[in-house]
Amino acid sequence: MKNKLSIMLILGIFSCLFFISLPVFSVTTDDPGVTISSPEKINSSGLVDLKVTLAASAGNLSSDGNVQVIIPKSIVNNPRELESQLDISDPFYIESPSYMDDGNGNYILTINYDSSKINPTEANGYTFTVKFRTPLFTDHSKVPENLDFKVNLNVNGEIVSEDLSPSITIPHITGKPIKPVDSIKPIDPVNPVKPLEPIGPAKPVNPTKPIQLVDVSKSENQKQSIKSKKEKNNLPKTGESKNEKIFKATTIGIILTSFVLFYNKRLEKGKF
Prior knowledge:
Number of helices: 4
CATH topology of the largest domain: Immunoglobulin-like
CATH architecture of the largest domain: Sandwich
Low-confidence stretches: 16-28, 192-202, 225-239
CATH class of the largest domain: Mainly Beta
Helix content: 10-25%
């Protein structure tokens, strides 16, 4: 009896150590799904990078569609940069003009994807980056303090996934020198769509595929039917650091081991 109890307690110790060491991952509900990541803080006369990821399990991106990025107009210094500085590769492509004014204070940038360039037998994840410079602003009279960057995934004319990423804007302090932004090249006055020195990979353009735009008013109504929204940066996260898990596992092991030794001694003395 004593040996069986000792074995059970020892097995319990190793079970605790095993489960504590397992990583904890966040779970996404949209499949296919789309996420957007924006800077936590956006400075006056600064550079903004918006990272958009399209992901799906095997076979769930079998139809052509598009990803629409909704960007507040007030934070964009030159809307032509939304297209000229776009960093994309297969399966994404654009048609010029790729952005439009929705009439509600936003630019809508549309990125199409070609489903024939997506492997249907594997889970997939593709990312593109939207880059643009911000205007000079010294207060929040024209640029709100809080901005939301939105993205939605449209398949067969319907929104199947959407995400939102908030940012805080930081005005320029009067009298402080403005730090130049060198990450984006100046625009060629002869060909304003193309920068003087292109950065990033060339943008694949497919002229044979029509651009798919979703009615903005219809999109607002469709949002009510979406089951859930993802949190910002929907990437795998662990609940504890490795050192914290090791410390917790070691502490539990010491406590349980001490209990086994104490229990055995009490059994030997016939006190149980």
